[in-house]
Design goal:
This protein is an alpha/beta fold. The protein folds into 2 domains: about 150 residues, HUPs (Rossmann fold), CATH 3.40.50.620; about 140 residues, HUPs (Rossmann fold), CATH 3.40.50.620. Helix content is about 40%, strand content about 20%. It has an 11-stranded mixed sheet, sandwiched between helices. Helix 4 packs parallel to helix 5 and helix 6 packs across helix 7. It is elongated and about 70 Å long. Belongs to the universal stress protein A family. Pfam families: Usp (PF00582).
């Protein structure tokens, strides 16, 4: 394993930002699992890893601090031992230690890489303050793809399918492009899922026969608008489409068994809107048992279409 040092300057100058995956590490099982996922991606694509650890500012001196430079060194040592044990000893790894809030540190350094990866705890909602402040903040505000890896994720022996949430908005184009490029690189399928939420008070869980044609025609147009360009760009990628009459979180969860990553758009109509992640996207980040990659549109593209909230 090649380590370019634990100073911020070294981490910035040794690796090509376009070939660097940034990972937030704190020594927790969630962070270690996120590092494992990031290392697998880095190895597959010839990227370097940058491990970022942030610790809170100590307002008052304490006799035995549980955070700081010494603790950061232990976190990096533990993480690098994991990488070596999992067969990633040949990766180029740089480390960055920073004093201050973790979300700001990860957003700053994540913007210098091609992807930011963070872990997600399996603790109950009231205990997931770290996820709320760090993973969600990263997925909301980062300008690069952000992958949130749950603690329960385990790598398969072969690459699995790419699950794609399709909402029909122009602002999800980058997510569609990312999903197809990833599937092409892996040699796997794209499973595109469109969630249709029936109106409040609808008499049953599925459309009435009289309404079914309308919903099917609408979903067909959504898939055509979202996928046709990438189908032409990647003719070898097999695509499966599915319409689920459920909220986006439940819709994608029905297809997660055959996939090891779900890709969703960062800003758009329906699933995620405006400048913040909508409730559906936050639910996806918290609930799906596979890694979730949030892909935002470039700022130029976001100016083309006004945002709405959902």
């Amino acid at each position: 394993m090649t380590n370019t040092g634990d100073r911020e300057e070294a981490g910035r100058t040794r690796s090509d930002p376009e070939r660097t995956i940034v990972v937030g590490v704190d020594g927790s099982p969630a962070a270690l699992n996120a590092t494992h996922w990031a290392a697998r991606e880095a190895q597959a694509h010839g990227d370097a890893l940058r491990l970022v650890h942030a610790y809170p500012i100590q307002v008052y001196p304490v006799p035995h601090p549980v955070s700081g430079p010494d603790h950061a060194a232990n976190v990096f040592r533990m993480t690098e031992d994991l990488l070596a044990a999992r067969g990633y000893g040949d990766l180029e790894v740089s480390t960055v230690t920073e004093e201050g809030p973790a979300p700001q540190a990860l957003l700053r350094h994540g913007s210098e890489g091609r992807m930011l990866v963070v872990g997600r705890s399996t603790q109950p909602p009231l205990a997931t303050l770290f996820l709320g402040s760090t993973a969600t903040a990263s997925a909301t505000h980062a300008h690069v793809p952000v992958t949130v890896v749950p603690t329960e994720w385990e790598p398969g022996n072969t690459p699995a399918d790419v699950l794609l949430g399709v909402d029909g908005s122009k602002r999800s184009r980058s997510a569609v492009e990312y999903a197809f490029a990833l599937a092409a690189a892996r040699g796997t399928r794209v499973i595109a899922v469109h969630a249709v939420e029936l109106p409040y008070g609808y008499p049953q869980a599925k459309p009435l026969r009289s309404d079914e044609t309308v919903f099917e025609e609408y979903s067909s147009k959504v898939f055509s608008t979202a996928l046709d360009a990438q189908r032409r760009a990647h003719p070898d990628v097999e695509v499966t489409t599915a319409v689920e009459y459920a909220n986006p979180s439940n819709a994608l969860a029905k297809h997660v068994e055959s996939a090891d990553v779900a890709v969703i758009g960062g800003r758009g109509h329906g699933v995620i809107t405006g400048l913040l992640l909508g409730s559906a996207a936050r639910s996806l980040l918290h609930r799906l048992p596979c890694p979730v990659t949030v892909v935002h549109e470039p700022r130029e593209a976001r100016k083309e279409e006004p945002a709405t909230d959902s």
